[in-house]
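Minutes, project huddle
Topic: does the predicted pose make sense with zinc ion bound?
PN asked that the exact inputs be recorded in the minutes so nobody has to dig through chat later. Recorded below.
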Amino acid sequence: MMRIGKPLAHPSPNHGPRRGVSAPDCVILHYTDMLCPEAALARLCDPAAEVSAHHLIAEDGRIWSLVPETERAWHAGLSCWGGERDMNSRSVGIELANPGHGNGHAPFPAPQMRALEELLREILARWSIPPERVLAHSDIAPHRKQDPGPRFDWRALALHGLSVWPEAAEPRGAGEILADPGEILPFAALFGYDFAGCGRESGGDLGRDGRSPSDLGAHGTQARISEILRAVRLRFRPQSPCEALDSPADARDLAILEELARRWPCAS
Ligand SMILES: [Zn+2]
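Predicted holo structure (tokens), as shared on screen:
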């Protein structure tokens, strides 16, 4: 298949060497939360902003490559997956130009998705990354991030072998409310979600994204369950209206997490 467009080199100074790993073993998807890709490009290259990503994809499919994939870009911030905290060192970060939640939940247009699929196919092959290691920013930082959000089509990506999609996520009536919402936790943790809260602590410079948690240490189990549920629903139950993100854990949430944990347990 012909490439839609050759990535344009647009170097960002915001990067450093990977720490403790020589190669990325996952990909993190983001949205820019900005009204135009050029503004995002400027911010991701601004030394004062202290943020970056390896690649930025515009709505029309243009790709800018900002940081070499061998280097550590600064996009994940305080985060954790499978017990690993320095997600910047382990990942390739891709920003998708999109106005974000605050600007009307715009869809991700077809040219942008095609460019992403093509880029992901190359990245997964280049670094031998399995599809279950393509993650949302909201997966690795559920306490403070919601990107790429409910309009992002994870199922389409999975159909191309570029992510995973549990069959339990298909709509089949309302689930029964769980008597004990804590039932979801062992499965969520096995798939990779951070229940221990290690992604909340700023253990050294994890690469900044301008925000830090304000509620360190005072977070209860219930709130942690709600955060993980939101992340799971944003990604695997996108048909849920936004208000449903905070409704009590139900049987479908549990079925989704059981299947994720069984089929794609996090190795690390
Ligand atoms: Zn993000």
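Observations noted during the meeting:
- Residues 30, 137, 145, 147 surround zinc ion (CB under 6 Å).
- Helices lie at 37-44, 87-90, 110-127, 137-140, 154-159, 184-191, 221-236, 251-263.
No decisions taken; revisit at the next huddle.
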